[in-house]
Amino acid sequence: GIQVEQSPPDLILQEGANSTLRCNFSDSVNNLQWFHQNPWGQLINLFYIPSGTKQNGRLSATTVATERYSLLYISSSQTTDSGVYFCAGGSGGGADGLTFGKGTHLIIQP
Amino acid sequence: DVKVTQSSRYLVKRTGEKVFLECVQDMDHENMFWYRQDPGLGLRLIYFSYDVKMKEKGDIPEGYSVSREKKERFSLILESASTNQTSMYLCASSFPGRVYSNQPQHFGDGTRLSIL
After folding, report:
1. pLDDT higher for B2 or A102?
2. B27: contact with A, CB 8 A cutoff
3. Contact A49, A88 (CB under 8 A)
């Protein structure tokens, strides 16, 4: 199956800073999602982005499918952005489970 | 909005018990999934189902079984719980994709299961 590598594994920033999280895939994917897991363990959908660029408020994501990577940008960080960010991909059609990266643990300090 | 509901947020069971984790979705999704999440290992796929009464093994199916008698409900069963099955369990659902494409998965809030 595909391998998913996320970087950096940990990131500590001050409130107001910008950050870029990266996700590399070992093979082509046709489903790519970014999630935020909050301190209560809930996995929140951020983006479904198998290719292209999307923006949602202070967050945006870009996937370059031909080069097998995706980037998540967080601008003007707030303390509520803290948590673990996961990317996950699937390469099958119809029904296929996601393969998750190990996550980036983000801490935003006031 | 998609709603995936897991029956318990926290659950404590004893070794050897038969344990049922229930998941219900309200979006008429064909696909449903069970994952477990462990520190350092991330989320891993246990089983999934693409239709009623259909099931497929994921990456770590050993020690688990599943049941999908109705489209909206997908149950994960620990036949004889063991301490190494203490974990966070997450259910997800999605519409079916086409060949060479998938649809986004939507997750429940998770069940923290402790086996004593």
Report:
1. A102
2. no
3. no
Whether pLDDT at B110 is above 90: yes
For position A74, what pLDDT does the model report? 97
Q: Does A73 touch chain B (CB under 8 A)?
A: no
What count of other Cβ atoms lies within 10 Å of the Cβ of residue A35? Answer: 23
Q: Do A94 and B96 touch (CB under 8 A)?
A: yes
**pLDDT for residue B82:** 97
CB contact B112 to A (< 8 Å): yes
Residue A93 to residue B107, Cβ atoms within 8 A:
no
Asked if the Cβ–Cβ distance from B35 to A103 is below 8 Å, we say no
The Cα of B103 is separated from the nearest Cα of chain A by a number of Å equal to 7
CA distances from A79 to A8, A76, B30 (A): 19, 10, 37
Tell me phi and psi for residue A33, to 5 degrees: -130, 150
Mean pLDDT of chain B, nearest integer: 92
The yes-or-no verdict on residue A103 having pLDDT over 90 is yes
A13 residue type, one letter: L
Q: How distant is the Cα of B15 from the closest Cα of chain A, in angstroms?
A: 24
Instruction: Express each pLDDT in A78-98 by its tens digit.
Output: 999 999 999 999 876 556 789
Q: Determine whether the interchain pair B97/A102 forms a contact, defined as Cβ–Cβ distance below 8 Å.
A: no
CA-based angle A41:A103:B7, to the nearest 5? 25
- Give the residue on A whose Cα is nearest the Cα of B49: A95
